Amino acid sequence: MANNSNLMSGPYKIAIRGAGVTGLWQALTLARRGHHVIVVEQSAEPFADACSPWAGAMLAPRCEEESAESVITDLGLRGIQLWQGLYPGLSMNGSVVVAPARDRKLLDRFERMTQGASRLDSTQLEQLEPALAPRFDTALFYADEAHLDPGAALTFLLNEVRSAGAAVQLGTSETPEGADFIVDCRGLGAQDMLPTLRGVRGERIVVRAPDVSFERPVRLLHPRFPLYLVPWGQDETGANVFMLGATSIEREDGGPVTLRSALELLSAAYVLDPAFGEAEILTLGAGVRPAFPDNRPRIITSSGYIFVNGLYRHGFLLSPVMAELVAQHLETGATHPEVFIADLGKR
Ligand SMILES: Cc1cc2nc3c(=O)[nH]c(=O)nc-3n(C[C@H](O)[C@H](O)[C@H](O)COP(=O)(O)OP(=O)(O)OC[C@H]3O[C@@H](n4cnc5c(N)ncnc54)[C@H](O)[C@@H]3O)c2cc1C
């Protein structure tokens, strides 16, 4: 990290705009470091207008290496450590990647593009995820990945923010007077000040499947529509709940799931385990991921105003470490060269 000690060490009065996963991690980290934090969120109901509840939420810095730059992996590994230190609901079971036999080359390529995988044979796969064994005779296993249920984690975070002494004002967009710093975590809401920010639509389906059992996220590689499933624990009846996701479409609307996307997501689930045929669909819907043109997360500083945005498909993975970076910056002037931008024109 580069160092710039022009900043004093605080404590500061800090206003956070937006209470999605990014804003809540900022609020918690800064409040726990002794700063006076107030969060303003435009929706009266927590998370009602946020992308965050739509996430998987896999913490998968290894698998993401297949399509993301190495900075995402480096920051993401730290992100998992920070979740581990905070959230008792985190599942540290790793993740599994499979491909149908006819698409074996996709699995080989995935292995070459990522680090940290063990190649499982059929016996090892049967021990790890028995439901996959009848249809797949090999898999990649990434032991140091994690996942969580985003709804439960967001509620936990909001409570922790309040317990840490931060004030949370819902139903207002008004930034309080007198803040030393404003940290803008409005996701797509910041397009008024960050015109290159775009939305990437992600559709997902949540199902209840009493006869299906998985302990960890599973990615199914496919030439046209790669799918993943994430186990979200049990509902009140004790049945297993899964998130099936996710499309990635260059559109900014969060409207209903299309028939084509639903067919693709559901048929891929059926390929993983035909017992999904009896699953009950709980919800279908779409969230819109905030992303910069290069899909990298950014911290943009501009005289007392700090944007934290563009977390794209890595908001749960990266929000803890983005908060740590902002806190270190405020306290010591340090900047991470691949994440910080000082000039608004270069975002
Ligand atoms: C289908 C899908 C699957 C995903 N899966 C994963 C995954 O597996 N792992 C992962 O790490 N990430 C995943 N993501 C990405 C992740 O969800 C996003 O990166 C993350 O939610 C972005 O969070 P955010 O807090 O920056 O934005 P948001 O969650 O959108 O929060 C922004 C908040 O700002 C508020 N706001 C807007 N304007 C104002 C204003 N003027 N004043 C005050 N408040 C305002 C909004 O109401 C909102 O609450 C997924 C996303 C989707 C859609």
Q: Would you write up a description of this structure?
A:
The protein is α/β, with parallel strands linked by helices and 347 residues long. Helices cover 27% and strands 25% of the residues. It has helices at residues 21-32, 70-86, 104-113, 122-128, 150-163, 259-272, 315-332; strands at 13-17, 36-41, 58-59, 95-98, 117-120, 139-142, 146-147, 167-170, 181-184, 198-208, 218-220, 227-234, 240-245, 280-291, 298-302, 305-309, 340-341. The strands form three sheets. The chain has an eight-stranded mixed beta sheet. A seven-stranded mixed beta sheet has the order 8-2-1-9-16-15-17, with helices on one face. Helix 1 packs parallel to helix 5, helix 1 packs parallel to helix 7 and helix 2 (70-86) crosses helix 7 (315-332). The two termini are 19 Å apart. The mean pLDDT is 95. The structure holds flavin-adenine dinucleotide.
Let me know the CATH homologous superfamily of the largest domain.
Answer: FAD/NAD(P)-binding domain
Which topology of the largest domain does CATH recognise? FAD/NAD(P)-binding domain
* H/E element sequence: EHEEHEHEHEEHEEEEEEHEEEHE
Percentage of residues in helical conformation:
25-40%
First-to-last CA distance = 19 Å
The CATH architecture of the largest domain can be named as 3-Layer(bba) Sandwich
Strand order of the largest sheet: 5-6-4-11-12-13-10-14
β-strand number: 17
Give the cofactors and ligands.
flavin-adenine dinucleotide
Strand content is 25-35%
Poorly predicted ranges: none
Mean pLDDT: 95
Broad shape: globular
The domain tally reads 2
- Major beta sheet summary: 8 strands, mixed
How many H/I helices?
A: 7
Radius of gyration: 20 Å
Class of secondary structure makeup? alpha/beta
CATH class of the largest domain: Alpha Beta
